[in-house]
């Protein structure tokens, strides 16, 4: 099938297929005599697995680090979105979880600081525009 048909079958776009190919997640497919890409059901299944992993929060780089193992997940796809081989991606998942935890901590700290600043008398409704010292004390010289 041509790129548009393969993309539709996998629930994505032709542009995404070209991106996955460029990033090494999808092997370059054979081409017709006119140079058009020809995809089979195996490539469509692989793209579905890639999309499932992206939906779980992994990045293209995370998946690229284990691209050589994607076929194992393709074989297991009907059983779950991560396959029945959780160890195949465990280090990538652990890294992604650590990154997400760090980002959550950073955003929580940022939120607490903003909430504290918004709760100060200078930030209440009817007061003058908040000074930079209330919203960003680290900016003071």
UniProtKB/TrEMBL annotation:
Residues 115-141 are annotated as: Disordered. PROSITE patterns: HTH_MERR_2 (PS50937). Keywords: DNA-binding. The keyword rRNA-binding does not apply. It holds the Pfam family MerR_1. Residues 125-134 have a biased composition (Polar residues). It comes from the Bacteria. InterPro entries: DNA-bd_dom_put_sf, MerR-type_HTH_dom, MerR_fam. Residues 1-69 form the HTH merR-type domain. This is MerR family transcriptional regulator. It comes from Streptomyces cinerochromogenes.
